[in-house]
Amino acid sequence: MFGTETEFVHWLQRRVPVRGGSLKLGIGDDAALVAVAPGQELILTADLSIEGVHFLRRVHPAHAVGHRALARSLSDIAAMAGTPRFALVSLAISRRTPRPWIEEFYAGLLALAKRFGVAVIGGDTAVVPAGTMIDVIVAGEVPRGRALCRSGAQPGDLLFVSGRLGLSALGLQLLKSSGASPTRYVPVSRRQTAEALQAHLYPEPQCALGRFLSENRLASALIDLSDGLSTDLGHLCEASGVGACVWENLIPRPEVPAARESRGVDTLDLALHGGEDYQLLFSVPPRKASQIPRRFRRVALQRIGEIHRSRELLLVRSNGKQSLLRPGGYDHFQKVKG
Amino acid sequence: MFGTETEFVHWLQRRVPVRGGSLKLGIGDDAALVAVAPGQELILTADLSIEGVHFLRRVHPAHAVGHRALARSLSDIAAMAGTPRFALVSLAISRRTPRPWIEEFYAGLLALAKRFGVAVIGGDTAVVPAGTMIDVIVAGEVPRGRALCRSGAQPGDLLFVSGRLGLSALGLQLLKSSGASPTRYVPVSRRQTAEALQAHLYPEPQCALGRFLSENRLASALIDLSDGLSTDLGHLCEASGVGACVWENLIPRPEVPAARESRGVDTLDLALHGGEDYQLLFSVPPRKASQIPRRFRRVALQRIGEIHRSRELLLVRSNGKQSLLRPGGYDHFQKVKG
Predict the structure, then answer these.
(1) By residue range, what is the domain housing residue B49?
(2) A294 to chain B nearest CA, in Å?
(3) Taking the CA of residue A42 as centre, how many other CA atoms within 13 Å lie in the half-sphere pointing to its CB?
(4) Please, which residues have CB within 8 angstroms of residue B53's CB and are 6 or more apart in sequence?
(5) Is residue A335 part of a domain?
(6) Cβ of A3 and B334 within 8 Å?
(7) What is the CATH number of the domain that holds B254?
(8) pTM for the predicted model, two decimal places
(9) How close B20 comes to chain A (CA, Å)?
């Protein structure tokens, strides 16, 4: 732990920019001061990361906690088709936290910030008896009138997702079953293990894809997959006043050998309800569907269903039967995983 | 407690604006979207309010917790000479919190927001086992180049404060000594009791004063008094690379009858180290000092000292003797009150 608040602030100030470009004043005054470029609108988002809720000390390394805390907010900026610019970090640190944990937390957060061109410019700090809580606020920019919302989907639009869904939830399952040791995972192949762990510990916000969809006017509605497909598809449909149908066969899932899957890993369940994939879900008018590439950079884009007028969410199973798709993602008030 | 996250979000959406003016999109999408007026710079600040650290369930009514949580951030905007515009509220609610507490919390926060023209446009929510934590983020505007920082004080400048210092700390002392009952306070007069309680539970951010100082180019440096005069004066002097001298006789303090004061209420200690007054401390070049009014709106402005070149902070006592003024305000890492 740092000796005084001043010592901590000075330590942090040496690792972040104080002025430059549109940053007029960073950490160290009563508040931060920035310029917003003409013709741009400002996107603001805040995301909590709480010990015991969003991360576990025995499972998540501090470096990954820092990465994930910022990634959650960057993904929200991606989901508005924006470019993240500035971040504030509010940190309530439990008293027993060793200083290296805080240093590693910031190393993980600042490495991701640097890669996305985001300056950490403020926040608040407090020490609490137990249970570290982090709130990351990100301010981003988007050209005026070009933000993509949840509310624009029309009947007949096709639904697409980026990446494979459920990888993050699989990664968490592997981490939990491995106990404290990083060498004893449940027996999936090494490449698949590494991929799932990477997806869970170091999710990659899809900011470039969000901008691509907006710049080319391809998407009618856009949301990021933070709570799970079943829940976030519900959010998009509710905001748009529509329903949707998705095909089980089309949902891109983690690769797990069939023999292993039968031992308890249900990749469909993970893909539908797992959450924390931070991939993008978007609707595309049919006449524009051919303009959606199979891959954007190295991430696969997959059509998984379509929007219909009826408010229902339907899942077409592999055997052709339809069932209602109920939101099974995380609800903080209910504290249940679907 | 609310049944589901959706129920809570819908409840909140009915109490806040979703669109209008520079607000393009409020609560309900992946992030909020706002326009910043041309010629304005953006001020961003975040402030934590944590149960057991910043407020106590048995002492602070939920309505006042909501007011104070937002007031902390509004005061930071005042300290930059800005106008607050938008707020995000991140709320980690302890599971045992009854729904009326949350409703009262928002009632207090939204009443202050309305009075200052601030729209609540986003945030995050989670449920935690114990220990409610709130992070309030405020975005404000200030005309380009007109923000007032901590760093502009020059040797020879005069130091002013608004209001009386230590009132909030006195109010907290009264609340704590009264136990749970609001009728049994330590014996100060009724008016003085009411004033101290008001100052503690419902502090008034000095945004109009901050703007007045900037618009008339009166202040060379500005900070708000959140941690206590001894600590915040140190911040202002450190940022400006100067020191200061303040006169005990000039520091405006709570009115407590002398007889009572001798029974344990040390108003100088409260004024120097008490904190949470959310008044403004500012330096003024001598040639402009005559332009500082005795009162701004109904708040007294008082000259308390001056800036000097030596880095020391000095206190001139009533008997004429000088002593070093050491920071005695709250330090979260040290967990000591001076």
Answers:
(1) 5-143
(2) 25
(3) 29
(4) A126, A127, A128, B332
(5) no
(6) yes
(7) 3.90.650.10
(8) 0.94
(9) 14
In angstroms, the separation between the Cα of residue B246 and the nearest Cα of chain A is 22
Of A8, A31, A33, the CB nearest to B333: A8
The span from the CA of B83 to the CA of B239, in Å, is 23
Cite the DSSP H helix spans in chain A: 5-13, 62-78, 99-115, 167-177, 190-201, 207-215, 229-240, 258-261, 267-273
Would you write out chain A's pLDDT as a tens digit for each of its 338 residues? Answer: 888 888 999 999 999 988 888 999 999 999 999 999 999 999 999 999 999 999 999 999 999 999 999 999 999 999 999 999 999 999 999 998 999 999 999 999 999 999 999 999 999 999 999 899 999 999 999 999 999 999 999 999 999 999 999 999 999 988 988 754 444 445 567 788 889 999 999 999 999 999 999 999 999 999 999 999 999 999 999 999 999 999 999 999 988 755 554 467 889 999 999 999 999 999 999 999 999 999 999 999 999 999 999 999 999 999 999 999 998 876 767 653 32
Cβ–Cβ gap B35/A144 under 8 Å: yes
Taking contacts as CB-CB distances below 8 angstroms, the residues of chain A near B46 are: 88, 90, 122-124, 135, 137
Rounded CA separation A32/A119 (Å): 11
Write down the ipTM of this complex.
0.93
What CA–CA distance (Å, rounded) separates A202 from A172? 12
Cβ of A50 and B80 within 8 Å?
no
The closest of A72, A118, A65 to A94, measured between CA atoms, is A65
Count up the domains in chain A and report the number.
2
- Which residue in the set A5, A44, A150 is minimally distant from B88, CB to CB? A44
| Shared domain check, B160 and B97 | no
> What single letter denotes the amino acid at residue B326?
R
A203 and A286 both lie in a single domain:
yes
- Helix, strand counts (H, E) of chain A: 9, 14
CA-based nearest residue to A158, from A291, A299, A311, A320: A291
DSSP bridge pairs for A15: none
Q: Do A126 and B30 touch (CB under 8 A)?
A: no
Q: Enumerate residues 6+ apart whose C-beta is below 8 A from B35.
A: A41, A42, A144, B22, B24
